[in-house]
Write a structure and sequence with these properties.
The chain has 517 residues and is α+β, with helices and mostly antiparallel strands. Helix content is 47%, strand content 13%. The protein has 19 helices and twelve strands. The protein has a five-stranded mixed beta sheet. The protein has a three-stranded antiparallel beta sheet with strand order 4-12-9. A two-stranded antiparallel ribbon has the order 6-7. Helix 9 crosses helix 15 (322-337). The longest helix has 30 residues, at 3-32. The protein is globular and about 85 Å long. It binds protoporphyrin IX containing FE (HEM) and 2-acetamido-2-deoxy-beta-D-glucopyranose (2 copies). The site of one 2-acetamido-2-deoxy-beta-D-glucopyranose has 11 residues, from loops. Protoporphyrin IX containing FE binds at residues 104, 121-122, 133, 190, 315-316, 319-320, 323-324, 327, 357-359, 362, 445-447, 451, 453-455, 458-459. It holds the Pfam family p450. Heme binds at residue 453. The chain crosses the membrane at residues 7-28.
């Protein structure tokens, strides 16, 4: 046989046996999985599983339907794999609070996110996560966030003035697409409060170099090629170069350089006087991080390297920018649907709680075989009752953030109503909700446990500042029929118009100046 033919055949032989091995392992896992016992919806497609139903889903409609039919704990198929779904609060406590036994899916953490945010807090687990979190926590404390309030208010007033200048003569209402404006506002806020950097997104149509670099990286990372997906699924292939094209490489280099400059400037200020050049105390997250890194409470070997701190710049952008603007968009939408709440909020400027979460669900993977206890037992396909779920290392679980926030079992019959006053009236929230392991407000919007959102106070104060300024100034109404507004779920669920899906996420409102009678 010709040597080349022989080598080719043996390569194909090796690949073939590897493929067969993977297939056999997959089939073995699937047929012997303890999850097979759990009830759940039928599988409509061998390849896609139930993923299409969930992606076409308006918010949590499909999930709620499943829970009504199969109970709060069930199993569905996400492409080729089974996925455990549970709204059971005992189970959710176990999953979220058992430190690092349940982690982000490896492909998301080590591959997709790492490409975007480097080695920042979002991709760390276990010891490295614990260390970073310890240095970073003080930067997000109550007092530190309070000091940022004037930035939040300042940028809110900036947006208010832009909108006010668009209102027509004699206060005739103007149609404004609020999502893009809110996104620019939260970008300016995270730039200033995060790293003392001006993105100038509200003022200019041309993005600054940080925003430009960051959006190129995000866009490229969302446009996955077949090779990217293969590399994410089959770790061995990551030994080969990824398909990063020159634009993305350039953007990543630019991002690093800007991060390094920002860190250098921060260190300059702090080492000179402990203050910023203009004499005010530096209070942005980056300065707070550098200061915390120098604190005597942190042993020398636990401090953060410059690289780690630079990685937090893009981490804060990913984690804090669109999350906050999307939540604000839904909050204003909710207030056009219940005008009496908008009016009441305007009148009293009560501290309106914002429950609208932009996350439908968050995945976690079991790092070891485990038994998850349940408060509500389930009956398996053979009629046997179980007070817990056996999971195997590698099983994926969907933590249903939105569905738990809207569960009638937990919140009562009015769970799905936008009703901020439930937090104000005594007995307004049922005691059952105290079992939800959320870091804030008995909802999972900011998750709970080791990976709970570190920036939740930051974003709450920012959102309250903006609503305070806007609701006092404007009256808002939806500019399209309410049935036109649908929610498009990807990682964050965002509003879209049914008739204009090609325009992506948007929310047009009518606004006019509020004139007291
Ligand atoms: C309404 C706005 C926000 C929402 C709904 C939100 C929600 C969340 C959620 C659900 C997680 C957990 C993700 C996971 O573990 O899979 C998270 C993590 C995180 N958030 Fe937020 N967030 C918001 C705003 C912010 C802001 C403004 C910042 C920063 C300034 C921020 C920084 C982070 C960081 C760094 C993490 C990673 C924490 C860790 O893994 O230890 N977030 N956020
Ligand atoms: C944190 O402290 C270590 C040790 O003192 C130092 O080498 C490192 O550069 C510091 N990192 C930052 C971002 O300041
Ligand atoms: C109980 C609760 O907080 N319900 C809220 C869940 O989220 C929706 C919007 O996403 C709000 O309208 C509900 O008030």
């Amino acid at each position: 046989m010709h040597p080349i033919l022989r080598i080719t055949l043996s390569i194909f032989g090796t690949l073939g046996s590897y493929g067969l091995f993977l297939l056999a392992r997959y089939l073995y896992r699937e047929t012997t999985s303890p999850l097979n016992k759990l009830p759940g919806p039928p599988n409509p497609s061998w390849i896609h599983g139930n993923s299409k139903e969930l992606q076409d889903d308006e918010l949590d409609v499909t999930q709620t339907k499943w829970v009504e039919e199969y109970g709060p704990t069930l199993v569905f198929r996400w492409f080729l794999r089974k996925r455990l779904y549970t709204q059971d609060t005992k189970a959710l406590n176990h999953i979220l609070m058992s430190s690092y036994n349940y982690q982000k899916p490896e492909a998301l953490r080590k591959w997709h996110l790492r490409n975007v945010v480097g080695s920042g807090l979002l991709v760390q687990e276990e010891d490295e996560h614990r260390l970073q979190r310890k240095v970073m926590n003080p930067a997000f404390g109550i007092a530190q966030i309070r000091e940022m309030t004037d930035i939040f208010v300042d940028e809110s007033i900036h947006l208010r003035d832009i909108w006010a200048s668009q209102v027509g003569p004699a206060n005739s209402p103007v149609r404004v697409e609020i999502r893009s404006w809110l996104s620019r506002m939260t970008l300016d806020v995270i730039g200033r409060a995060g790293f003392n950097y001006r993105c100038n997104a509200l003022d200019s149509t041309e993005p600054d170099e940080l925003t430009k670099a960051f959006s190129i990286i995000c866009e490229m990372s969302n446009r996955l090629t077949f090779w990217d997906i293969l590399q994410a699924v089959v770790p061995v292939l990551r030994l080969f170069p990824s398909t990063s094209n020159s634009a993305k490489k350039e953007a990543q280099a630019a991002m690093k350089r800007i991060g390094r400059d920002l860190l250098w400037q921060t260190k300059e200020y702090l080492s000179a006087t402990g203050e910023k050049a203009d004499g005010r105390r530096a209070k942005d997250l980056l300065s707070l991080l550098v200061r915390s890194n120098m604190s005597k409470d942190i042993p020398e070997q636990q401090r953060m390297t410059d690289e780690d701190v630079i990685a937090q710049v893009s981490t804060f952008l990913v984690a804090g920018h669109e999350t906050t603007s999307t939540t604000l968009t839904w909050a204003l939408f909710a207030m056009t649907q219940k005008k009496e709440i908008q009016i009441k909020l305007r009148k009293e400027l009560l501290q309106g709680d914002i429950a609208c979460t932009p996350f439908a669900g968050i995945p976690r993977v079991a790092m070891k075989d485990d038994f998850i206890p349940l408060s509500t037992a389930y009956t398996d396909r053979n009629g046997k009752v179980h007070n817990g779920i056996q999971v195997r290392k590698g099983d994926t679980i969907s933590v249903p953030v939105l569905a738990v926030n809207r569960s009638k079992e937990l919140w009562g019959e009015d769970a799905r109503d936008f009703k901020p006053e439930r937090w104000l009236i005594p007995g307004g929230i049922p005691t059952a909700v105290s079992t939800i392991p959320g870091v804030w407000g008995n909802v999972l919007s900011f998750l709970g446990g080791a990976h709970a959102c570190i920036g939740y106070r930051f974003s709450l104060v920012e959102m309250k500042a903006l609503l305070f300024v806007l609701i006092r100034t404007f009256e808002f109404d939806l500019a399209v029929p309410a049935e036109e507004v649908v929610s498009k779920s990807s990682i964050l669920h965002r509003p879209q118009l049914k008739s204009e899906p090609e325009k992506g996420s948007q929310l047009p409102l009518w606004m006019k100046l509020y004139v007291p009678l």
